[in-house]
C-alpha cells in the first residue's frame, strides 16, 4: 500500500504561489493588524498599567515615610551568612522606597517607548522616523537604571548596611552594558532603514 505524497510548498507553473502557502502567510504575520505585534502591544499595555499602579503606590509610601514615626523598628536582612537585624532608620526607609520608585519609574519610561514602537509595527510601519529616537531613549534609560542600581547597592553596602550586602563589581556591569549597546545598534539599524525608505519615496 502506497502512502499519499504530501503536498509540496512550491509555486504553480505560472509563478503564482499555491493557496496553502498563502494561507500560512496569512495565519502568521509579524506586523500589521491582527499580527504577533498586536498581541505583544496588548501585553505591553497591560504591563505598563500594572507598573504604573505599582510605581504610584511606591510614590505614596515614599511620601508617607517622610512623616510617619518609625521609632523602635527593626528589619531583618538576610545574606549567605544568615540573617541580621538592623534598626529601620528614616534615611534607610526613604532611600529604599526612593530607589524602588526610581527603578520602576525607569522601566515605565522604557515600556512607554516600547509601546509606541509596537504601535508602528501594528500599523505596518517599522521604520518610522520616531522609532530611532525611541530606541535611543530606551538605551539611555536602561543605562541610567543600570548605573543607578549599581551605585545604590554600593551605597547601601558601604553606608546603610555595612557587612550585610556585598558591593557590585565592574564585572556585574558587563551584561547590562552589552544590552545597552545592542539597543543603540538597533537604533542605528532603524535609522538606516528610515533613510532608505525616504530615498525610495523620493525616487518614486
Automatic annotation (TrEMBL):
Keyword Transmembrane annotated: yes
Domain of life: Bacteria
Keywords, comma-separated and alphabetical: Membrane, Transmembrane, Transmembrane helix
Classification via Pfam families: DUF2975 (PF11188)
InterPro entries, A to Z: DUF2975
Transmembrane segments: 46-70, 90-111, 138-161, 173-190
Protein name: DUF2975 domain-containing protein
